[in-house]
Amino acid sequence: MTRLDAPPPIRIGLLGFGVVGGGVVRLLSQKAGAIATEIGRSIVLRRVLVRDPGRSRPFDLPEGDVTTDAGAILDDPEIDVVVELMGGVTPAAEYIRRAIRNRKHVVTANKDVMATQGVDILQLAREHGVDVYYEASVGGGIPLIGVFRQDLVANEVHQVHAIINGTTNYILSRMAGDGVDFGPALAEAQSLGYAESDPTADVEGIDATYKLAILASLAFRTQVSPAAVYREGIARLRAADFRYARELGYVIKLLAIAKRHPGARGAGAPGARSTPLTQGARDGGAPPPTDETAADEIEVRVHPTLVPQDILLAGVNGVFNAVHVRGDLVGDVLFYGRGAGAEPTSSAVVADIVDVAHNINAGVANRIPFHYAGRLPIRPIDRLETRYYVRLWVADRPGVLGQIAQVFGDHQISIASCIQKETDPSAESAELVIITHPAREADMQASLSTLEALGTVRELSTMCRIEAFA
Amino acid sequence: MTRLDAPPPIRIGLLGFGVVGGGVVRLLSQKAGAIATEIGRSIVLRRVLVRDPGRSRPFDLPEGDVTTDAGAILDDPEIDVVVELMGGVTPAAEYIRRAIRNRKHVVTANKDVMATQGVDILQLAREHGVDVYYEASVGGGIPLIGVFRQDLVANEVHQVHAIINGTTNYILSRMAGDGVDFGPALAEAQSLGYAESDPTADVEGIDATYKLAILASLAFRTQVSPAAVYREGIARLRAADFRYARELGYVIKLLAIAKRHPGARGAGAPGARSTPLTQGARDGGAPPPTDETAADEIEVRVHPTLVPQDILLAGVNGVFNAVHVRGDLVGDVLFYGRGAGAEPTSSAVVADIVDVAHNINAGVANRIPFHYAGRLPIRPIDRLETRYYVRLWVADRPGVLGQIAQVFGDHQISIASCIQKETDPSAESAELVIITHPAREADMQASLSTLEALGTVRELSTMCRIEAFA
After folding, report:
1. Inter-chain Cβ pairs, chain A and chain B, closer than 8 A
2. How do residues B390-420 score in pLDDT, each as one tens digit?
3. pLDDT of A406 strictly over 50
4. How far apart are CA B254 and CA A85, in angstroms?
5. Chain B residue with Cα closest to A148
6. What's the rounded mean pLDDT across residues B18-39?
7. Contacts of B40 in chain A (CB under 8 A)
8. How far is the alpha carbon of A160 from chain B, nearest alpha carbon, in Å?
9. What are the structural domains of chain B?
10. Residue A171 has pLDDT above 70, yes or no
């Protein structure tokens, strides 16, 4: 393939040789010809950092040496692009920084690093004239980062609603479609390799908070910390919740939600206030509110959510992911695909490598700078206003429903509908499902505390927020 | 906003000032600050080509002169980017070429030009060192062109299934959801401004063939002519078809379908054979088949299609569009949003303008060259193999069903299921709906001809292909 006048190959150093790393190596080898045609030169894998060089691999490493010494990649002047696929913050973040300081471009799939340190790393890359690409950090093979940075650039993004954890979506789909309860659905996901033996990060919504932090930071040109995302997992849901939800016209999804609420001055124009990172506004935060203006606030939360049956997100099942974005110009757009797996993730990593290669060919870096608009205040969950679904077991005797309605009423919460079907004669209990009109979270939490203290309430089983997509 | 050391503004010449043109002008004005922040310099509208300068506009043109002389834009050395929003091939294609020859970048929403002359225009742009962007030519505000050119670049695309005409999707959604017949649904679409007074281009699927030609050309790195796309419109569908489809577990959509069929040598590696345009392979076509290899073929068709109820495309309703892509690495991905309208389309046009501005800032053009893999043979519709839905009225007497089954059997078509419900006693007719197992189009057409000649067949009402999404 190589012609005498062809430019020299682009040399890759790979950090991490797990499932995705192996997929990338296989892909770079299998599609070497197509990739060379696309970028007009070849890509060679110069070195791979592994933890255990003795471990047997599904295939030999082509054209690459295996090393356990990160410096042999990070400090090698022959390497043009460092592809970081180790995962976790330590030591990946420091390796990424060192690669940048050594003027290497970086392609990473690391959600932990980009969610917690993304703005700083993009800033460092800008200072050193190199590119950092991270399309594979969210949504596997679904184009998202490039879409926010380029395609939606003219939009003010109002809302993001995302199913960005395939493990929990698989479990919820099984519970909804087949009446399986949480425990067996989780066990099944584990046996299929969709859930890890310690499923906490997925099931408790932690993974989703990192991905939402990345998406919200991009959408609102800010830095949202994963720790700032309100979070509830799916472990409390029961098969009964899915039956009731269906009856009421809903499905239950673990949604990652980000919304921007305009300050008092009106709809806002975030771009107009944003400042390139190099102008030092990064630590300045949002402009201080004056008498006439209040800063925009953002709302970021991950929790099981009742979603109307007839919207597209409701039809996203199994391990698939989908991100629904509402912008002021495009209106509603949705991006759907496999959020994980060696092949989809490798597809995103290699697309990033190819884009970096185009930049190297053109002699440019930071062609599209990330503009940071300052830190935006996070609206506390207490101030959320939404409709609620509450399932509880109460004493099966006259006057109890009235007593419960009274508690909600005392907290300014109005009941929209109520279902009572199941009874447990031995325990003299009845199952009650209540849907509220829009109410404030603080009032709902206060109501639930009051209810819990009532002798007639046997169990507060489930509380779910309802997303209207109005 | 302007600082003394700021680079000079980027100057736009706009061709066409209709709905989308007006939207772009409004957007460039309303978001001037945000756009200037994004690209580090301002964008000014220098001149607008209009047909009738006397016509009243919803707003004044800011910083721009109105002209009826295209040369005042195309030949103005002060203009950096020509934004072509006239539509139609003549004179738009010639204007685009003249702009390129005068070394202006071009942003266009023109599906007619890009579908019929896209490869040549991209080639001309490459020769003259300028960029041509055309995201708005397909799917309004849905990111598609950039997605194919960048995000999916590592994939071999196997299939595209698209709902890319909002007018027909609105009509079909009304027919499906509310039992409205074609005529009233069309009239309603017209009264809402979703359909033109002459709806032919939408209703007959012509618009969709142009958009499919663009998508298939990108997906397969070739040039598919809209004329090569097999096409049927939606005017023959009746409310009854939607009732039967629902009963059978399907919805009816006007799908634009593109598939790549590997030649005898196997799955193929199109990229490996692709050649940059400048290497003169453009007119060479596909490599000649040898004894061992046969060229890949592509299948491109637009027609009403029965789609399983439970897939995501089936839930795309109203004027929304969606494009479902299957690639060898990403598997299934889907992109959804508004396919038309001033704001979504302006969003795409302005995103393209911003991207061109980034290129101007970086001093690059053709950063991502379009690699043409040669002309691929189109598989004739006769060789299609799929399942079919056939609705027909037959004489209501014994033996007729057997006679019809016999005709299909004589043509190697096996019937999977049959519904007979409606009868018209006055005409002694019965309505019959037949679903076949996979069969060849040529055999189906021959069967229909034979059936039509039978005295017992009163009317061949509808024939629809079924897409399995296996």
Report:
1. 212
2. 999 999 999 999 999 999 999 999 999 999 9
3. yes
4. 42
5. B143
6. 94
7. 276, 369
8. 14
9. 10-141+352-371 (3.40.50.720), 145-339 (3.30.360.10), 381-466 (3.30.70.260)
10. yes
pLDDT: which is higher, A87 or A57:
A87
Span A265-316, pLDDT tens digits: 544 444 433 444 433 333 434 444 444 567 899 999 999 999 999 999 999 9
Q: Which of residues 268-287 of B touch A (CB under 8 A)?
A: 269-272, 274-276
On the CB side of A466, CA atoms within 13 Å amount to 22
pLDDT at B51 over 70: yes
Contacting residues of B for A269, CB less than 8 Å apart: 31, 33-34
Contact of B360 with A366, CB cutoff 8 Å? no
Nearest-neighbour CA in chain A from B272: distance (Å): 4
Residues of chain B with Cβ-Cβ distance to A316 below 8 Å are 312
* Nearest-angstrom CA–CA distance, A215 and A226: 11
Q: Whole-number mean pLDDT of chain A?
A: 91
A154 CB neighbours in chain B (<8 A) are 27, 31, 35, 346-347, 350-351, 354
| One-letter-per-residue 3-state SS of A333-357 | EEEEEECCCHHHHHHHHHHHHHHHH
Interface test with A, best of B27, B42, B43, B150 (most A CBs within 10 A): B150
The helix or strand, by DSSP H or E, that contains position B435, with its residue range, turns out to be strand B429-436
Residue located via tokens 């690495």: B329
Contacts of B338 in chain A (CB under 8 A): 330-333
- Between A33, A310, A333, which is nearest B272 by CB? A33
- List helix spans (H) across A192-267: 200-203, 206-220, 239-247
- A344 φ, ψ (degrees, to nearest 5): -60, -40
pLDDT tens sequence across B213-244: 999 999 999 999 999 999 999 999 999 999 99
pLDDT of residue A372: 86
Q: Pick the residue from chain A with its C-alpha nearest to B38.
A: A371
Asked if A137 is an interface residue toward chain B (Cβ–Cβ < 8 A), one would say no
Beta bridge partners of A67: A49
State whether residue A78 is helix, strand or coil: coil
Greatest alpha-carbon span in chain A: 91
Could you tell me if B264 lies within 8 Å of chain A, comparing CB atoms?
Answer: no
For B380, which DSSP code?
Answer: P
Residue in B31, B312, B351 nearest the CB of A312 = B312
Separation of alpha carbons B205 and B165, rounded Å: 8
Share of chain A above pLDDT 70, in %: 91
Selecting from A334, A344, A355 the residue whose C-beta is nearest the C-beta of B336 gives A334
pLDDT on residue A275: 41
Decide which of B207 and B55 is more confident: B207
- Given a contact cutoff of 8 angstroms between Cβ atoms, the answer to whether B157 and B373 are in contact is no
pLDDT digits (tens, 9 = 90+) for A420-458: 988 888 989 999 999 999 999 999 999 999 999 999 999
Catalytic residue among B111, B211, B253, B259: B211
Output the pLDDT for position B62. 57
The encoded tokens of residue A212 equal: 């939402």
Which residue numbers of A are catalytic? 211
For the residues of B357-378, what is the DSSP string, one character each?
HHHHHHT-S-SSPPEE----PB
Alpha-carbon distances of B115 from A19, A103, B110, rounded to whole Å: 40, 42, 8
When CB atoms are compared, the residue of A27, A38, A272 closest to B271 is: A38
Q: What is the pTM of this model?
A: 0.93
**CB-count exposure of residue B333 (10 Å: 0-12, 13-18, 19+):** buried
Q: With 0-12 CB in 10 A as exposed, 13-18 as middle and 19+ as buried, what is B354?
A: buried
| A357 neighbourhood in chain B, CB within 8 Å | none
Residue with tokens 């031995």, as numbered in its chain:
A426
| Cβ of residue A383 closer than 8 Å to a chain B Cβ | no
- pLDDT score, position A268: 42
